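User: ok so my PI wants both of these folded by tonight, can you help

Assistant: No problem, let's get them done. Here's the first:
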Amino acid sequence: MKKIWVVFSLLLLWVAGCKKEKDKEEIAFSIPSNFPAPKYNFTSNPVTTAGFELGRKLFYDPILSRDNTISCGSCHISFSAFTHHGHSVSHGIDNLLGKRNAPPVMNLAWSNEFMWDGGINQLDMLPIAPIENPVEMDLEFANAVQKVKNSSPYPPLFKAAFGSDEITGP
């Protein structure tokens, strides 16, 4: 079953330490020699170029917010190490202020607790929280899945990433 959150995880894992090989089009996850083994299990969610491309599109697409104005990349800004630099707390939907600032999305494969309070303990579930949070993106996840299903660019991207254009949620 293809889950939209798997795609977000692929993007987060890429940010965590992937590199592009020179003679291949596939992304290869590499562990630095001085790092411990990652805590994330890659067997159920391997890093691929097609998965990364899909994840990147979803990460920067405001379709995942209630009014199509906020994307994950709105608060996890790439030129600021994927944080919301310069703000004491992140600004979400309707310019509402959250309770905390967006944490960086790097090296997440080595973590088993996420969010500032450790409230999420599985990387694959991490992207759902900000989508559903009423002051971040304010969209029920089932509605986010439906919006992605109805958006013409996504079925082919899911097919390339997972071999099927089926888009489902948890």
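One down. Here's the second:
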Amino acid sequence: GVVAIASPSDVAHVRHLLGPGAEERIREQGRAEVDIGGRRFEIGATFLDDLARHDVAEAAAALVVPLLVIEAGADTIVGPDQTDRLAAAAGATLRRVDGADHLFTTRTHADALAAVLLDWISALR
């Protein structure tokens, strides 16, 4: 099986997260720092090129193995519209970890994430 944790359903959402003018800066300079969810990342032009070659929902729908989509309930980066769309596109199982941020940074949420994963994996047998 495949597990998508707090994953967007399309690359347009990822591009949006880069921020205003980021793609232009990246193309002009070859790479640039962007802020996503309060964290700094260096993004290169090859990343942008790679994004253009992918359709996340289409790839998920083409899977021939079970897919689990896990939504972080308090995610401010990838919202439920994205995870719902991804799960629907692939006919996947959708689970939510209430109160979790995008990175499942608290021990409670990380433990809940692990429990969801283990339950789903156990059910595959």
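Helices lie at 11-17, 22-29, 45-52, 56-61, 80-90, 107-124. The longest helix spans residues 107-124. Good luck tonight!
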